[in-house]
Predict the structure.
Amino acid sequence: MSINHWVKGEVAILEINDPDAMNTLTPDCLLQLRSALISHQDNPEVRVIILTGAGRKAFCSGANLKKTFPPERGFARNLLISREAEAADGGYTRLLDLSDLQIWKPIIAAVNGYCLGGGLELALQCDLRVASSTATFALPEVKVASVPAVGGVQALLRAIPAAHAMKLALTGDRISAADALNVGLISDVYEPEALMDGALEIAERISRNGPLAVQMVKKLAVETAHLAPADYIAQSNTAWGLLRDSTDRIEGRTAFGEKRKPHYTGN
């Protein structure tokens, strides 16, 4: 199992690569994923990231049950050490939480099959989700007497209406791509052979915008959406001020006046 990743134009593509095991997750895979995300966040040539799974059967079907046995040491002890140290002991759930990485470049999940359990928790941490017509989605943990460990219930409640979110979380049932589109879990559905082209087309449209502005929009969405209006307006005004004198914003206004396409550099 590995994470393949490459850059196409201004878009980085990350691929969970274990199709024989339905692209299930292991501690090593998650460490590779985190490393790849950091490398592309720090690469000035990359403006958007696409996350997908190898093959057409699965985006990610959760943890690899054969390779994620309970750690030898207690949960309390491992909770108080680093994610990487816990992974060496077999722990993996904290690695699936990507919030500590502060990836401000937009991430698009291109869901090409099963998106289950930890796979859905991974997709819910992406900024956009698109899917093939054969994709299915579920948080099935209750069926095996467990719960989503990485905020899956809470993220689902933020992504779709509460009635649909709670039905999914409490039943553990799967829904189709069509149903996921209907409730707003995904934004677009494509035939399987057109999925990556569709995801790339969206990514390229995003990449043509001012890269600092795009990242700042994501930062505001992540960090301030829960605040009261007075507070999130203040944060938004500060973000606007930070970008006001940027080279890209001046270029955007100049290009608009000259009726040409802007050339953004991320400065």
Summary: The chain has a mean pLDDT of 93. The radius of gyration is 19 Å.
